[in-house]
Amino acid sequence: MTSNLQAYRGSLLHFLADPAFSDQSHDWFEDGLLIVEDGKVQAAGDYATLHATLPQGAVVHDYSGKLLMPGFIDTHLHYPQTDMIASPSEGLLPWLETYTFPVERQFEDTHHAADVADFFLDELLRCGTTTAMVYCTVHPQSVDAFFTASEQRGLRMVAGKVMMDRNCPDFLRDTAESSARDTEALIQRWHKRGRSLYAITPRFAPTSTNLQLQLAGELARAYPDTFIQTHVSENEAECAWVRELFPNARSYIDVYDSYGMMRPRAMYGHCIWLDERDRQRMAETQSAAAICPTSNLFLGSGLFDFERADDAGVLLSLATDVGGGTSFSMLQTMNEAYKVARLKGSYLPALRMFYLATLGAARAMQLEGTIGSFSAGAEADFIVIDPQATPLLQRRTARSESLEELLFALALLGDDRAIAATYAAGRQVHVRETT
């Protein structure tokens, strides 16, 4: 027997396509087996069929009664905002001034950055999130601290230094030239080192001069397999501010487009106040939207329009947006996404919510085949979900008559307690404490 081959028995779910557009969107094995070797998926399917293929003496980890699925992927959140989550404010812009900028100042201290990175990553793993697209601060050392911590855990993470050279406190302001120089050095140090990937990260258009955006676009062209992450059309007051700052731009997203920052691997947070041309341009360029329902509700920013985004063919994913978002849990994020969809007059099935948090996010990031599914050769990032994690979940899921009902109960009633274990590249990186 190969010593590093591991097998895991339980109910197995992963996605093949978007349930909104395919009747064959997923594989579901009520009694399934996941086989992992060298940190990658070797096979996933029916237990009775696959168990016979195991080498003699192979150990099977028994998670019967629990659900195995790919780890959650969170496409937009801020690790420096961990300590200011759930801070009261009347809106986005006052919230930035009152809480965000003072907290981010502390990340010039490498030891502080490392401490927060450790807690942040452990919290993600506790909630079943194995990959995230993460904003650091303007300080290069905040990026080093984050990637050092994720590398120690063997995680597939995307992160970048915030670029911000105007409309912010002096203590957080870089320059167009220094931000480009620091970003390029960080790309060369961290991009594709182990499981780390780099994201060019202008915070949002109002905090970048034209020169800084120009240089960010030049970096995006020079390093086409890096990611781009920023914010767009989150809040009406913010959109009005962008119109004042960039009077020649057709729209907010057109600001980024004019500097060459709409392309595959570009992830735009929020995307609430877009028009039809904006959505069409996102689809044309394979730029993706990170939908942040808990943050949008908390800050009163608006409601994402799933129907119009789907009509345009925009790549979609779900995100917590901690610390504007109020939970690290993708299950709680699904809960709020469902309600946002209802308020906009559409319906979001549970199957699709779980797709958007796994394969859908991987597709939005252009990482299908690497993460987000149990396809052969994919990295073995997976989670074990316990439908009996709380008395209410146990009672409700016992009465589930379909996979959709089971998943819906998990999304609406679940949180970090539902994650029994988390694995990254085939290695257990979290196990729920039981009393």
Automatic annotation (TrEMBL):
Cellular compartments per GO CC: cytosol
Required co-factors: Zn(2+)
A biological process term (GO) from this entry: guanine catabolic process
Pathways involved: Purine metabolism; guanine degradation; xanthine from guanine: step 1/1
InterPro entries: Amidohydro-rel, Guanine_deaminase, Metal-dep_hydrolase_composite, Metal_Hydrolase, Metallo-dep_hydrolases
Superkingdom field: Bacteria
Keywords, in A-Z order: Hydrolase, Metal-binding, Zinc
CDD domains to which the protein is assigned, alphabetical: GDEase
EC number(s) given by UniProt: 3.5.4.3
Catalysed reactions, semicolon-separated: guanine + H2O + H(+) = xanthine + NH4(+)
One Pfam family in the UniProt entry: Amidohydro_1
Cofactor, how bound (note): Binds 1 zinc ion per subunit.
GO MF term set: guanine deaminase activity; zinc ion binding
Residue ranges occupied by any Amidohydrolase-related domain in the UniProt entry: 68-429
Function recorded in the entry: Catalyzes the hydrolytic deamination of guanine, producing xanthine and ammonia.
Family the UniProt entry places it in: Belongs to the metallo-dependent hydrolases superfamily. ATZ/TRZ family.
Protein name as it appears in the record: Guanine deaminase
Organism listed in the record: Duganella guangzhouensis
Organism lineage string: Bacteria, Pseudomonadati, Pseudomonadota, Betaproteobacteria, Burkholderiales
Underlying gene: guaD
